[in-house]
Amino acid sequence: MNRQPAWLRPWARRRRLIAAALAALGVLSAFVAIRPAAGPEVLVAARDLSPGPLRPGDLRPVPLAHPPDGAVRSYAAGRYLAGPMRRGEPLTDARLLHSLTLPPGTVAAPVRIADPDAVALISPGSTIGVLAAWEGGQPARLIADDIRVITVPRPADDTRTGGALVVLAATPYQAAQLAGAQLSGRLSITLKF
């Protein structure tokens, strides 16, 4: 019969507890060994964000081991987000409006579309047509066709009933037509897929 040395006898009763403690220490050591190194802090969306101006609290700094190219690392409040972002998504310079380039021969034309629910169907990069309707029973008329949406700014006040603002890449002639139609009529959109 195997007899244990005298110094080991007090620990024999606790061997399961010791084995569990050693296993936990092994798991903790493995976690520390494979944990990715903390990288530089970049700004990520604190919640789902819509296109428009960034406000304090929209973004939070998070260390990423491998940040994407063009990751924004400093204050971005007040700049314009060109497209929607999901919570936790890193902000890159390509997401900010200043990074978008207008096609040659176009200008940025802000217009107010009468139906904000129709504007909810579009996003930056969408191609739309703009219709104008006037009172007096005249049929609606196509003012501009095949226009690219640059951004759909988020309204500062969600209780607005005057329509929704959209910024479009239009030729100077289309921009003048849109401005004139906006003064005396109501604008609506057609979607291109």
UniProtKB/TrEMBL annotation:
Pfam families xref list: RcpC
Domain of life the protein comes from: Bacteria
Domain annotation SAF: ranges: 40-97
Protein name: Flp pilus assembly protein CpaB
